[in-house]
Design brief:
heterodimer, A: about 260 residues, alpha/beta, Rossmann fold, six-stranded mixed sheet, about 25% strand, globular, B: about 400 residues, mainly alpha, ABC transporter involved in vitamin B12 uptake, BtuC, 2 domains, two-stranded antiparallel sheet, 4 strands, about 5% strand
C-alpha cells in the first residue's frame, strides 16, 4: 500500500504468556479518520502504545510514510509526525494553559543556550512566533479566556480540548486520540465530532481513534477496525462493520 | 486523666529500659580490668523528666499550637524583580566591603561561593526536579581542575576558570548519561555514590593529586594578569601594589577576592534566571510534571535532564575553582558528603526553584554558624532542629518559587 500514511503489518505484542495483540494489520491513509473499536481488554490501547513507541512490539512492522518507526522511542516517533492524547488526560497541570502549548513547541523553537541567554534576535523572534501560534490555537479551540490559568483547574471538557490543541501545535500528520469522548457530556461529544472534522479538513491531519462511544465512531470514521481478544475481527466502513455478524457476536455475545 | 497517668507511667518505664544501658551503666577501666559502674540516679532523673513531660503534654501542646498558627507568613518571592531594587542591592554589595572588617568580608566571600553552589544545585533540584546528593563531586572536580592545572602547568586562575567549569560539566554529562534513566530515590543513591567515588579517587590518586595532603600554594586570582601578592616571586614581574603605588595590605587581597566572587555569583544568578524563562526551563518544568506526556510530544527527556545536570555541574565547577583560589589549598577533606548535604539544605531551605530564597538560605546557613561559634559542638543539632521546624512551619521553603508566567491577553 503505497498511498498509506501509517502502515501497521503483522503487529504482535506479547506480555509474558499473554498475547495482547495478535497479528494486527491496518493502514491509515492521509486525511482519513480510522477508528479501532472492541470490547474492554481487546488490545486497542496496546496497539496505540506500540505505534506511539511506548512499547516495543514483539514482532511486526510499523511504517510512517514508508519509513520504519518500529521500536523507536516515543519522542522519536513524534518527530515523524505522530502525536497522541491519553485515555486519562495528561496535561502539565501546574503550568498554565498557554505554557502547555509553549512546551509542546519545544522541538520547533530556538532552544540553543547562547541566543536565549543573550536574548538574541533569533530567540526573541522564535519566542514571539511560538506565542502567536499558541494564541491562534487557543482561539481555535475557544480556550483563549483561560490562557493564563493553571491547566489542572480547567473543566474536564476543556482539558480534553487543550490536550488536542497541544498535539496539533506540534504539526502532526497523524493524530492519535485514545478515547477522546470519555467523560464528555452529549453536547461536548457533538463539539468533539465537529472539531475532529475541522482538524481533518483544515489541517489535513489523519486521525487514528480509539473510542467506545458508537455514535461518535460511526459518525466520523471512514473505516473501522474491530478487535477482540487481541485479534482483528474485521476492517471496513461503518456500514460494513455494523452489519457484520462477527462484530455483533463480539459485542452482544452468541445466542 | 487516669488514661494520661497510665500513658506517662508506661513512657517512664520504657525510658528507663532504653536509657539504662546508655546513662545508667558506665564502663570504667581499672588497670587491666573493666568494671561496670551503675549510675541509677541518672536513669531516675530521665524517667522523672519523661513522666512529668508526658503528664503535662496536653498543656504543653497548647502554646506550641498557637505558635504554629501565629507565626508570620513570609511572602512568596516575587516573580518579577524590581529593577531598581536589584541594582540598589548590587551596589550595596559592591560598596560595603570597602568599609567592612577583614573577617566579615572573608565570610561574605564564603557566602558567595555557597550562593554560587546553591544556585547551581537549584537548577538540578529546583528546576529539573532531579535529586542530586553528590553535587560536591562536581565542586571537587572544579577545585582540583584549577589546582592541578596550576600545579602541573602553572596556569593562573582566569585561564583555568573556564576549564574548571568545562571539566565539571563534562563529568556531569558523563555521569548523567547512564544515570538519568533512573528516577527519584535511585538517582539520589547513584549520585551520592558518585560524590564519594570522586573523593576517594582524589585521596588515592597520590601521584596526581597529592593524596590526602592535597595541593597547596594555589595563587589567588590576578588583577588582569597582575599578581596580587606581597612579592611576585619571579624577576621583572611587578605586583599590583607596586604598580598602583599602594602599600601592600592583605585586606586588599580579601577585598579583590570578594569582588570576584560577587561577579561570579551574579553571573550565576543571571544565567539561572534566564534559564528559567527559556524553552529549556519550561521543558524542565514540564518534565517534572509528566515525563510520558513530554515524550509523546517529541521532547527527549534524557537530553533535557542532561542539560540541567550539566549546567548545574558547570556552576559547581566554577564555584570549586574559586574555592581553590580562596583557600590556596585543596584536599579531599573539603568535599565530603556533609558539604553536599549543606548545599542541598540551602536549596530546600530557600525554597526549591526560588533564587532569592536560595541566596537568603546561603547567607543564613553560612553566617549563623560563624556567629554562633561558641556553640560549634551543637551545630549539627541546631541544623537538624532548624530543618525540622522548617518542615513543620514552611515546608515549601523560606521564599517559595513563584514561576514567571508568560501572560497572554485574554480578550
Amino acid at each position: 500500500m503505497i498511498d498509506a500514511l501509517l502502515n501497521v503489518s503483522a503487529l504482535c505484542m506479547r506480555f509474558g504468556g499473554l498475547l495482547a495483540v495478535d497479528n494486527v494489520n491496518f493502514a491509515v491513509k492521509p486525511d482519513e479518520v480510522f477508528a479501532i473499536i472492541g470490547p474492554n481488554g481487546a488490545g486497542k490501547t496496546t496497539v496505540f502504545n506500540c505505534v506511539g513507541g511506548f512499547y516495543t512490539p514483539t514482532s511486526g512492522q510499523i511504517t510512517m510514510n514508508g519509513v520504519s518507526i518500529t521500536g523507536l522511542p516515543s519522542h522519536r516517533v513524534a518527530h515523524h509526525g505522530l502525536v497522541r492524547t491519553f485515555q486519562n488526560v495528561r496535561l502539565f497541570k501546574q503550568l498554565t494553559v498557554l505554557e502547555n502549548l509553549l512546551v509542546a513547541q519545544h522541538t520547533q523553537v530556538e532552544t540553543r543556550l547562547l541566543p536565549g541567554l543573550l536574548k538574541l534576535k533569533s530567540y526573541r523572534q522564535s519566542e514571539a512566533d511560538a506565542l502567536e501560534r499558541a494564541a491562534q490555537w487557543l482561539d481555535f479551540m475557544g480556550l483563549r479566556e483561560f490562557a493564563n490559568r493553571e491547566a489542572g483547574n480547567l473543566a474536564y471538557g476543556h482539558q480534553r480540548r487543550l490536550e488536542i490543541a497541544r498535539c496539533m501545535i506540534t504539526k502532526p500528520r497523524l493524530l492519535m486520540l485514545d478515547e477522546p469522548a470519555a467523560g464528555l457530556n452529549p453536547q461536548e461529544k457533538q463539539d468533539l465530532q465537529r472539531l475532529i472534522d475541522r482538524l481533518r479538513c483544515e489541517f489535513g491531519v489523519a486521525v487514528l481513534l480509539i473510542e467506545h462511544d458508537m455514535g461518535l465512531v460511526m459518525g466520523i470514521s471512514d473505516r473501522i477496525l474491530v478487535m477482540e481478544h487481541g485479534k482483528p475481527i474485521v476492517t471496513g466502513t461503518p456500514a460494513e462493520v455494523r452489519s457484520d455478524e462477527r462484530v455483533i457476536k463480539a459485542y452482544l455475545g452468541e445466542e | 486523666m487516669a488514661n494520661n497517668l497510665r500513658n506517662a507511667f508506661i513512657a517512664a518505664i520504657l525510658t528507663g529500659v532504653i536509657v539504662t544501658p546508655v546513662f545508667g551503666l558506665q564502663l570504667v577501666r581499672q588497670g587491666a580490668r573493666t568494671l561496670m559502674d551503675p549510675h541509677w540516679s541518672n536513669v531516675l532523673i530521665a524517667m522523672a523528666v519523661v513522666f512529668v513531660g508526658q503528664l503535662l503534654r496536653p498543656w504543653l501542646a497548647i502554646p506550641f499550637r498557637r505558635l504554629k498558627s501565629g507565626l508570620p507568613t513570609l511572602p512568596a518571592a516575587p516573580s518579577q524583580g524590581n529593577k531598581w531594587l536589584v541594582l540598589l542591592i548590587i551596589a550595596a554589595a559592591v560598596i560595603w566591603p570597602f568599609f567592612g572588617s577583614r573577617s566579615s568580608v572573608d565570610i561574605a566571600t564564603l557566602v558567595l561561593i555557597y550562593v554560587m553552589l546553591g544556585l547551581g544545585l537549584n537548577i538540578v533540584v529546583g528546576f529539573a526536579g532531579l535529586l542530586d546528593l553528590g553535587f560536591v563531586g562536581f565542586y571537587a572536580v572544579g577545585a582540583y581542575t584549577y589546582a592541578l592545572l596550576y600545579h602541573w602547568g602553572g596556569w593562573g586562575f582566569w585561564e583555568a576558570l573556564p576549564f574548571a567549569g568545562a571539566m565539571a560539566a563534562l563529568f556531569g554529562f558523563v555521569l548523567g548519561f547512564p544515570v538519568l534513566r533512573l528516577r527519584g530515590d535511585y538517582l539520589a543513591i547513584v549520585t551520592l555514590g558518585f560524590g564519594e567515588i570522586i573523593r576517594l579517587l582524589l585521596i588515592n590518586l597520590n601521584w596526581l593529586t597529592g593524596g590526602p595532603d592535597g595541593i597547596s600554594g594555589i595563587p589567588k586570582p590576578s588583577v588582569f594578569g597582575i599578581p596580587m601578592a606581597r612579592s611576585s616571586g619571579t624577576e621583572g614581574v611587578r605586583t599590583f601594589h607596586e604598580i598602583t603605588g599602594l602599600t601592600f595590605q592583605s585586606q586588599h587581597v580579601v577585598l579583590w577576592l570578594y569582588l570576584m566572587a560577587l561577579l561570579l555569583a551574579l553571573i550565576t544568578l543571571f544565567v539561572s534566571t534566564r534559564l528559567k524563562r527559556m524553552p529549556v526551563g519550561r521543558a524542565w518544568e514540564a518534565l517534572r510534571e509528566d515525563e510520558i506526556a513530554c515524550r509523546s510530544l517529541g521532547l527527549n527527556p534524557t537530553r533535557i535532564k542532561l542539560s540541567a545536570f550539566t549546567l548545574g555541574a558547570m556552576f559547581a565547577g566554577f564555584g570549586g575553582a574559586f574555592f581553590a583560589a580562596r583557600q590556596g589549598l585543596v584536599n579531599p577533606e573539603s568535599f565530603t558528603f556533609i558539604e553536599s548535604a549543606l548545599i542541598l539544605a540551602i536549596v530546600v531551605l530557600g525554597g526549591m526553584g526560588s533564587q532569592v530564597g536560595v541566596i537568603l538560605a546561603a547567607i543564613l546557613l553560612t553566617v549563623l554558624p560563624e556567629l554562633a561559634r561558641g556553640f560549634a559542638e551543637y551545630r549539627m543539632l541546631m541544623f537538624g532542629l532548624v530543618m525540622v521546624l522548617m518542615m513543620m512551619w514552611r515546608p515549601q521553603g523560606l521564599l517559595p518559587m513563584k514561576r514567571p508566567h508568560v501572560e497572554l491577553q485574554t480578550k
